[in-house]
What does this fold into?
Amino acid sequence: MAQRIEASGSIALKDGRTVTVRNLSEHDRSALATFGLSLPKNDLLYLEDDFTHPEIIARLANASYAENWRQIVAATDSGEIVGYTAALRMPGWSNHVANIRLIVQPSYRRSGLGMHLAQAIVDAARDLGATKVTVDMLAALTAGQAIFSRLGFAVEGQLARHAIDRDGNLHDIVIMSAFVRV
It folds into this structure.
């Protein structure tokens, strides 16, 4: 099993604000629920996890010490969560692969926070023992693709009408990946 590395540190964003990037803890349940409720409906339509559902929030908070899962948040000094990212190492023949997720509160987008969180979760995936990291996102999310491209990710494929949002609309997704050294 890989040694657990704690992600923690204060970062200054491009707009002058500061946040603390740290591992999610079980004590973050309320702040994570508030974060989920603060996301615009359009964001919620395509998220894999329903951040407005209390059972999902409980599962995420309870998994803060899971062996093959790392979750990192960006929090303000007041404890408000403004960004969330996770890496989940795949089981079986893909146990060298970690899939990552990333979401940033709209008022913190374009501040550099997404890039900081992306780098932190790639590092966490490497610490999990992953040698390949993947991220799936809607093809329309060009800003997210740009973040991961800057980290060395490349488009590995695109799946037509592969995602369905909570309104029943179909969307193409892009699969990006990068190889990382352990």
About this structure: Residues 8-131 form a domain with the Aminopeptidase fold (CATH 3.40.630.30). Residues 87 and 121 are 6 Å apart (CA to CA). Confidence is low (pLDDT under 50) at residues 1-5. The helical segments are 29-38, 41-46, 54-62, 113-127, 142-150.
